[in-house]
Every structure is written in C-alpha cells, then in structure tokens.
Design brief:
heterodimer; A: about 475 residues; mainly alpha; two-stranded antiparallel ribbon; 2 strands; about 75% helix; globular; B: about 500 residues; 20 helices
C-alpha cells in the first residue's frame, strides 16, 4: 500500500483517527495537569470529541470503503458516530462533578472514556468479522476499567469483575462464531460471505451455527434475555456516570454490529435465525419489563428497563432478511437507539443529581417529594419516564411507532402485540417514579450543577421537540447500510 | 387556511399561550395565576364561538381544514390535518364551555400548587380539543394519549385519599385500550397508504373479516374510555378521587372522547363490522344502562352515585350510536352534550357541598333545603335534567335515542330500547332518592344547620349550565341542525356499505 493509498483509506475514518490520536496525547498531557485541576482534562477530552464530531458532520455523504473492506463508512455509520460522540459529550458533562463529589476525580477516567468511544465508532464501521471482534474488545476493555473505577467499593469491584468475565465469555462466542463462519464461507468479510452464499458453495448449517454464536456474543453486549444476567449488577455497581454512558453507547454499539452483520452477511440463514430472534425479542421485552416492576432501586430498575428496550430493538431485527422492509427496519432500529439514548442520558442525569455522595439515594423512595423540592428536575424526569413508556408527544413514542410499523409491515402481528402489551406493563413502573416524585411527601437533596442541568434540560427539551419534528432525523437514519 | 388565521387551530392551541404566560408567574401569586388561566379559557371559548359563527351547518363536509405535511418519510404519509364537522362542532364547544366553568370552581377548592394545577388543566384542554378536531389518525392518537398525562396528574396530585391508586388505574386502563388501537392505526396506515380519516373513508375496501378485528381494536380504546360495561371499573375510582374540576372535565368531556371515537372512526371506517356488531354493542349498552342505574341506587357516596349514573347515561349514547340511523346518532351526539352539561353540573354541586362539609356520605345530610334554599333549587333542576324530565335537555336526548333504537334495523329488535326505557325510570328513582336524602326532611345533623348557601361565584358557575339545560330542553332545533347533514352522510356511508 503506497502512501497516497494509505491517505485515501485513512480519510474515511479520519474522525476516528483524530480521536484516538487525541486520546493518546491526552494520556500524556494529563500527567502535567495537577489533581485539583482535572477539569482541564475533561475539557480537553470534550474538545477532542467536538473536533471528531465536526469531522463526522462535514464528511461528504458518500460511502467509503477503507482498508480492503475492513471498514465501511456509510450513512449508517455516520448516524451512529454522531450518536456516540454526542453521548460521549453528555457523558463527560454528567461525570465531571459526580466524580468530584464521589472522590473519584482521576485523569484516566476521561482517556479511557474516549478510547471506549473510539471502539464504538470502529464497531459502527466494521464490515469484517475480525474487525467486529477487535472493536468489541476495544470498546469493552476501557468500560471494564471504568465500571470498577469506584474501587475499593465492593459494588464497583463486583461490577467490573462481572462485566469483565461475562464480557470475555461473550467475546469468545463472537470469535467462535467468526471461525465457524470462516469455515463455511471461506471469508470473514461481510460482502464476501454474502457472495459465497450466492455462489452456492457454502455449508449453510455451519454458517447458521456461526451466525447463532455471533448472535449470542453480541446478545450479551446488548443485554438480550437470556444473556442479560450481568446487566442489573453492573449497572448498579458501576459509578452512575459510567452506567448512564454505558447504557446508551455499549448497547448502541452492540446493535450496530448486529444490524450490519445480519443484514449484510446473513440473509441466507434467516429461515433458521429469524425464529430465534423472534423468541429473543419476545423474551427480552417480557422479562425486562416484568422484572423491572419488582425493583426498588432506581439503578436496577433502569437496568431492567434497558433490557426491555433492547427487546424492542430486537423486534426490528426479526424481519432483517425481507428485502422490502429491511431498510426501514434498520432505520427504525437506529432511530430508536437515538430516542432511547437521549432519554436514557437524561434519566441517568437525574439519577446522578439525586444520588448522595456516599452512594445512597438511589432507591425509588428517595425521589419522594422531588416534584416540590426541585420542580424542573422532576418535570424532566417525568418527560423521560413518559418517553420510556412510549406516551406521546415524546421521542420514545415516535421511536416505538417506527419500530412497530416495521414489525407489522413484516407481518409479525403477534410480536407487535407482545410489544405493545409489554409497553403497557412498563408504563406501570415508569409511572411509579412519577407517582413517588409528585404524590408522596419527602425532602430529597439534589446535587445538580450547571453541566448536569444542561444535559438534563437539553435531553428533556429534545425528547419533546424532536418527537414533533422527527422526519428529518428518520430521513437521515434511512440513508441505510450499503452492501 | 393559514395556521394562525384559522379560528379552529387557534382555538385548539390558544390555551398553550396561557401555559406559557403562567410559567413566568411566581407560584405565590395565586390570584393572578387563577385569573390568567380563567382569562385564557374564556378567550379560547370566545374563539370557538367565532368557529361556530362561521360554521356552515348545511355543509356535511369538514370545515376550517388545515392540512399540512408532517411526517413524510419512508412511505409514511402523515399530515397535520385538522377540521371540524357536524359530528365534532358541539363537542369542541362543550370543551371550551366547560373548561372556564371548571376552572372557576377551583377558586377556593385548590390552594395547593395552583400554578401546576392550572398548567395541567390548560394542557388538558389542548389535548381534548385536539382529539375532536384531528382528522389524521396519527395526530388523533397523539392527542388522545396526551390527554392522559395532565389528567393523571390532576387526579394524582390534587385528588382524594386514594388518589395514587386511582390515577395509576386510570392511566393503565386507558393506555391498555389505546395501544391496541395504535396497532390498528398502524395496520391501516401501512395497508391503505394514508392516515387521513376522510381519505380512508373514501378508499374503503377493507374486507369484512379484517374490518371485524380492526373494529374491535379501535373499540377496545373507545369502550374503555366511554366506559362501556364491563370495562367501567376505573371510572368510579377516578371520579371519586379526582378534584371537582377534574371530575367535571372527566365526565363532561373525556368520556365523550370514547363515544366520539365510535362515531368518527368505527362507524364510517368499518361499516360492515359496525352493522354486524350493532346488536352486540346495543346489548352491552343496555346492560350498562340497567347496571349503572342499579349500582347508583346502592351508593352511599354522592359522588360515586353520580359516577355510576354516568355509566348508565353513556349506555344511552352508545345505544343511540349503534342504532345506525339518523335519529339514533343525532340523539347520541346530543346526549353526549347533555350528559356533559348535566353531569358536569352535578359534580359541581357535589363539590360545593363537599367543600363545606368535607364529606359526601349521603347519610350525613338531610333537610338541606331549609338551610340552603338556592342551592336546593339549582340541584333540583339539575336532578330533573339528569333523569330526563320533559322540557329539560336530558329528555330530548334520551327520547331521540329510544326512538332511533326502536326502529333500528341494525339492532334488529325493539327489546333493547324497551329495556333501556326502563332505565329512564330507574334514573328517576336513584336521582330522586339522592335528592330526597340530601334535601328533604328535618335537618338531622347539627353541623348542617350552620351551612352557608352558595355564593355569587358559585351561582355564576351554575347559571350558564342551567341556561343550556332549558335551551336544549325547550328548543333543541339549532343544536340538531348543526349535526344533521353530517349525520345523514355518515348513515349513508354505513348503510350503503352493506349493499352488494
């Protein structure tokens, strides 16, 4: 590869390269920033994210294949890049003060944070199974460390260890699936796998098995039932600022890979896999929502709620091989990721504001009286809960609408019915938060600062406003995957 | 027509302006907050009168139409489509008319978090108006679900002792029905290619078997809202726990959203299923009439009595609608308005006595006529109106409905109307029973001897309602004329669908 070739290849993934270079530089710069001035590290990290975001937005809207088809930069990838980078910015804003008052303010938090975002961005572009595996580890390893950032708190250590062990296990599944797929199709590149299947010279049984293994591995990442066991414990134990970020981005990255791999490489195994996906989606929606009802800790409740939302997105994956709906189903899945992301970041922002320095204040009862004590925060939380429950006019409602439409279009009426019934169940526990905030007496203390309020406020306003003007966003999400 | 120069969209969204102003007023300035909210609702009412003045009753089509593209991506075809016709004009007016009255009733009843209360109330008004004017199913659904949120807070924050239970029950019950409707809406939007109600009616062509299921999905949402027996169990809880103003709006307008939904969607969109299921719906309606009346009679709590009487009265509305002939439907729509006025007034009356005595137990009263004569007169007239005394509004509605139901070929048997007619008598029984227990006889409780009669504000609240009670009762023609052409058109759509 000549130097000019290298430049052509690198151009497509420039936002990622710049971000990673910046992360490496930040690792060194941070050494010279004194401990009581770590705000600078946070600001520099944010600057890196902003530059990268600027590069993504200004990229010409064409599809670029880089490095022999290892990475594909298309509309799908750009949509998710923006989602990751904005979540990253919000995550930083939520983290800074939280780390200060929890006594966790250390520079490496921000560097790890950026490394993880890099991995996610790579995941959204990965069009080779090897690259998928690489990105999976790349995004996960910093997150393992971040989950244990509150050491020596036992919860946090448990969280990190659990996440690491199960994550490593999941990685193994992905790798095994990759090997099987290679065995069947003699390539790990998504386009070539598809071509091999079309050529007819493929052991379909082995390919299905490979696809199933990859599904299991990524199912861990998106916390689909029955691979969800780690989620509540990790969400509960990890520092809340990490949880909020992880709940959005790690799930989005997992879905990015699932969508790209299955739509581009595995349409041939759909007759076998679609049933599995159907069952996974139904189980995930049911179990996530049902168990969430029983939670008294808001972090665990939101963890189960995030499981449930993974179920809704999985619904969109069921008809992935149907030509006439697959483009819409991919678009509605990533649109839902956005809707879920904005809502989730805001909701975790409120959780951070109510959480006390010693880590208590995360029970539902701690929200009693919030409506009176801090009306704006409570109003924002109300909007987030309604959005999660899918009540108009919120982004969550529009997102669910797009999802249900694809499912109905694909003829999966019974799955759609399970979906709406579980939304009804979910309304019960989301409403409970509102009931407690407004209808029960209490004197909660809140720790909100300017940045946190900004994130919560912007999220709340966008949840409502974007729901009224959702067309352009969906249009953008529809600039779909390119073969 | 332009968005802002169209009096209909202006009516719908004007309360939002009031909300905006309220947000900038300090919580402590309660009196200013009340006046701003009342002023907003009065201006909204005034604008809706402009709509009425410019409304052409002879035209059966939609008027004041706004139709702007809204969500037009990926094969969606969703428009911001609003308009009003004979089916909805009275309900729009009922909403704008009852809102200031309800707000005025909170003057001394709501002292806690006045601003929040007013904000939720005005938001609720926007939602209700939106439901009645939306002509795009998606837009309709957005407004429909949105009304849940403010009402949920009104019950949950300012309600009685079991308010949390009632609020959550109200929300979940209603949502349970509406999500099934959502699926049906999506199905229609995908398979018919449009969400516009008039277009869907023109397109038609849905096979009878599919119509059946779609009808049921829509009916799930509407029947819970009405509420039809046996889906009514949320209603007494919500009513008993809601603050007076909330009950007035709940009974006066929110329940009408259900019956309106049947007229606007189920009848013209799924006419074959409507014809097929008419006897079944009539049966449920009749059971509701008799059951509601019997349970009302057994109540010890006055508010609960009025709440169950709603189940009975709305049974009449449903019976009229599913007669599927002009008399029945006109009577049904008129009865929606009548019920809004009479039951709204009853809830206000109950609220007034509750504010004085802090109890609604029927045994805690007696002989009030001697202590509060003005209050007694008002109550007597409203009681008569509610039980359908000739010369008052309730009679016109119920009579027209029974007339329609007797001769209805869709229902196919005069027995439903016959049994329902007995419901009128039962209504007289429980309403007079209530009146007698409250007002007649000696003053049995010492606490009641010192009660003050209703004041000027309370009289001002009740007088407009009484004017309408007499007006509709003595000269209903202008009200019926407003809807007649649209109802004729609707009946034609339903009846011709059955022809080969």
């Amino acid at each position: 590869m000549s130097l000019s070739d290298l430049w052509t290849n690198a151009q497509g993934i420039l936002p990622l390269i710049v971000l990673m270079a910046w992360a490496c530089a930040l690792l060194i710069i941070d050494l010279f920033i004194p401990n009581d001035r770590k705000g600078w590290t946070a600001a520099l990290a944010a600057a890196g994210l902003l530059v990268s975001l600027g590069l993504v937005v200004t990229q010409p809207a064409e599809t670029v294949r880089s490095f022999n088809g290892m990475m594909t930069v298309d509309g799908f990838a750009r949509f998710l890049h923006v989602l990751f980078l904005i979540s990253g910015l919000a995550g930083l804003a939520l983290a800074y003060n939280y780390l200060n008052r929890s006594g966790l303010q250390r520079g490496e938090y921000y560097t790890l944070f950026i490394f993880s975002i890099g991995g996610m961005m790579a995941m959204a572009m990965a069009s080779d199974l090897i690259m998928v595996f690489l990105s999976l580890e790349w995004l996960s390893i910093p997150l393992y460390v971040l989950a244990g950032f509150a050491r020596p708190k036992l919860d946090s250590e448990e969280s990190a260890l659990k996440y690491f062990l199960l994550g490593a296990y999941a990685g193994g599944f992905v790798l095994y699936g990759t090997a099987l797929t290679y065995g069947a199709a003699k390539s790990t590149q998504l386009a070539e796998i598809l071509a091999a299947v079309k050529g007819g010279d493929v052991n379909l049984g082995m390919l299905s098995f490979g696809a199933a293994m990859i599904l299991i591995g990524l199912g861990f990442k998106v916390s689909a039932v029955p691979f969800h066991m780690w989620t509540p414990d990790v969400y509960q134990g990890a520092p809340t600022s990490v949880t909020g970020f992880m709940a959005v981005t790690a799930k989005a990255a997992g879905f990015a890979a699932l969508l790209r791999i299955f739509v581009l490489a595995f349409p041939a195994v759909a007759p076998k896999i679609a049933v599995v996906l159907w069952v996974l989606a139904a189980l995930t929606m049911l179990l996530g929502n049902l168990v969430a009802i029983a939670q008294s800790n808001i972090k665990r409740m939101l963890a189960y709620s995030s499981i449930a939302h993974a179920g809704y997105i999985l619904m969109a994956l069921v008809p992935y091989a149907l030509k006439q709906v697959s483009a819409d189903s991919v678009a509605s899945a990533i649109f839902y990721l956005l809707a879920y992301g904005v809502t989730t970041l805001g909701a975790w922002g409120v959780v951070i504001a109510v959480e006390k320095t010693d880590g208590t204040g995360v029970n539902l009862q701690d929200y009693a009286g919030l409506g009176r004590k801090n009306p704006l925060l409570a109003a924002a939380m109300t909007i987030f809960m309604l959005s999660f429950a899918g009540v108009p006019p919120t982004l969550g409602f529009v997102g669910k609408l797009f999802l249900f439409r694809t499912v109905i279009e694909a003829g999966e009426i019974s799955l759609a019915i399970i979906g709406v019934l579980t939304s009804l169940i979910s309304a019960y526990y989301y409403l409970r938060v509102i009931v407690i905030m407004y209808m029960q007496p209490g004197e909660p203390e809140t720790n909100s600062d300017f940045w946190l309020n900004l994130v919560v406020g912007v999220s709340a306003v966008s949840v409502v406003l974007l729901s009224l003007f959702s067309s352009p966003i969906f249009q953008w999400a529809s600039t779909a995957l390119v073969q | 027509m332009n968005f802002l120069s169209n009096p209909l969209t202006l009516t719908t969204f004007f309360p939002l302006l009031g909300v905006l102003v309220l947000l900038f007023i300090k919580n402590e300035q309660k009196s200013l907050i009340r006046w701003v909210a009342l002023g907003t609702s009065l201006i909204t009412f005034a604008i809706s009168l402009v709509v009425l003045a410019q409304f052409n009753p002879a035209n059966p089509e939609l008027q004041f139409v706004t139709n702007l593209p809204w969500i037009q991506v990926a094969k969606w075809n969703i428009n911001f489509h609003m308009g009003v016709d004979g089916l909805s004009i009275l309900l729009v007016l009922l909403t704008t008319f009852l809102t200031p009255i309800a707000l005025l009733s909170t003057w001394s009843a709501i002292e806690d978090r006045v601003k929040d209360f007013m904000v939720f109330f005005l938001l609720l008004e926007v939602g209700m108006l939106g439901v009645f004017v939306a002509q795009d199913m998606f837009l309709f659904y957005v407004f429909w679900e949105f009304t849940l949120v403010p009402m949920y807070f009104l019950i949950g924050i300012w309600g009685g002792a079991r308010r949390m239970y009632a609020a959550v029950k109200f929300f979940l019950y209603t949502m349970a029905g509406s999500i099934l409707m959502l699926l049906a809406i999506l199905w229609l939007g995908i398979n018919q290619g449009t969400f516009s109600v008039p277009e869907l009616i023109t397109l038609g062509g849905i096979p009878a078997g599919t119509q059946f299921w779609l009808f049921l999905a829509f009916a799930a949402a509407f029947a819970i809202k009405v509420p039809m027996w046996p889906l009514h169990s949320w209603l007494p809880d919500a009513h008993v726990e809601a603050p007076t103003a909330g009950s007035v709006i709940l009974a006066g307008v929110l329940l009408k959203m259900g019956t309106y939904g049947f007229v606007r969607f189920n009848l013209p969109l799924f006419p074959l299923a409507a014809l097929q299921l008419a006897p079944f719906m009539a049966l449920l309606a009749t059971i509701g009439i008799v059951y509601g009346a019997m349970v009302s009679y057994a109540q010890k709590d006055v508010k609960k009595l009025v709440a169950y009487s709603s189940v009975s009265h709305l049974g009449f509305v449903m019976l009229g609608l599913f007669a599927l002939n002009p008399q029945g439907i006109q009577g049904g729509i008129l009865q929606m308005v009548n019920h809004g006025i009479s039951t709204g007034a009853l809830f206000l009356i109950v609220g007034m006595i509750y504010e004085r005595r802090h109890t609604r137990d029927i045994d805690a009263f007696g002989g009030l006529w001697k202590v509060m004569p003005i209050y007694g007169v008002f109550t007597l007239i409203v009681t008569f109106s509610s039980m359908g005394l000739p010369g008052l509004n309730g009679f016109i509605g119920e009579f027209t409905i029974l007339l329609g139901a007797f001769g209805s070929s869709a229902i196919g048997s005069p027995w439903y109307a016959g049994v329902s007619a007995a419901g009128v008598i039962m209504a007289a029984v429980y309403m007079l029973f209530m009146f007698q227990k409250l007002f007649l006889g000696p003053v049995t409780h010492d606490e009641n001897k010192e009660l003050k009669d209703i004041n000027w504000r309370e009289i001002i609240i009740l007088v407009p309602l009484l004017v309408l009670i007499f007006w509709i009762g003595l000269y209903p023609k202008p009200f019926l004329d407003l809807m007649a052409p649209t109802v004729e058109k609707l009946v034609t759509i339903v009846q011709t669908s059955a022809l080969p």
